[in-house]
Amino acid sequence: MIPIAICDDELLHARQTQAAIRRCEAQAVTRCFESPLALLAAVTQQGYAPRVAVLDIRMAGMDGIELAKRLNALVPGCAVIFLTAYLSYAPDVYETRHVYFVLKSELDRRIGSALRAALAETAAPASLQLATAHGYRNVPVTDVLFLERILRKIQTKLILVELHAEATSEKLAMGRMLDGQVSAVWGTHTHVPTADTMILPQGTGYVTDLGMTGPRDSVLGIRPELSIRRFRGDLPSRYEPAPGPCKLEACLFTIDDATGRCTAVRRVDIHG
Fold first, then answer.
1. Which of 32, 49, 169, 265 is the most exposed place for a label (fewest CB within 10 A)?
2. How far is CA 213 from CA 111, 135, 138, 196, 270, in A?
3. Do both 144 and 265 map to the same domain?
């Protein structure tokens, strides 16, 4: 789910923006605000933290540029898209950090590109979950420069790496980079099992995503009707786990004790 805030003091324009966003981003969960103060109240009083904010520039009381400055301070990870009917505002938007500037007359044509840029700007870096003497620790992939050096100091031959990331390419690249240095690499996060179990050339077992263990008849563990309502634009509601039979999706890696190399890997899928 991608939380997206829309702030426009003209409700009709806000609804048009909301519809355009939903047409190009299925995972968008939008909230419309009729004033900057309403959006700021949701952030400061309700803990609302949008990943993207689509802001009209010309609004009563506080303009979108001032609102963006405050959002930049309150929600540093939020990407701002400015939306206006007036091209004359274009130079002013550079007073604050933003990703895109869209004219309302070009909304349907431009909003898709703007959203892609905003989501790329705010994408969480993939992380590695590593076992340490003090428990598990999530390490951003951007810190992997130190991984090879650390691995040389590890005495055990059995080394398992979990990569929590959305992009398949990130997981495949990590598997190839660690091939021969670790026993197995598996991915998580998408909740969808992949059919690419393999032993890489240097003996590292690999699968892109293990899948999910939880309710079988669900949307990522959630009651389907609740997820459908959210995608169709209903007000956010509390998610509830789906009832009924469960499923277990996993992988079984066979590791040679003497060499630390993977000798076999197979999927384990049990549906109740």
1. 169
2. 36, 23, 21, 18, 9
3. yes
Domain hosting 93: range is 2-122
Cα–Cα dist 10/86, whole Å:
15
Please choose, from the candidates 83, 79, 64, the residue with its C-alpha nearest in 3D space to the C-alpha of residue 18: 83
| pTM of the predicted model over 0.85 | no
152 and 267: one domain?
A: yes
Task: Choose the final residue of a domain: 103, 122, 141.
Answer: 122
Contact 130, 139 (CB under 8 A): yes
User: Within a 13 Å sphere around the CA of 179, how many CA atoms are in the beta-carbon half?
Assistant: 14
Overall number of domains in the chain? 2
pLDDT band at 104 (very low <50, low <70, confident <90, very high): confident
Q: What are phi and psi of 79, to 5 degrees?
A: -90, 135
From residue 109, give the alpha-carbon distance in Å to each of 16, 102, 183: 13, 9, 48
Are 138 and 261 found together in one domain?
yes
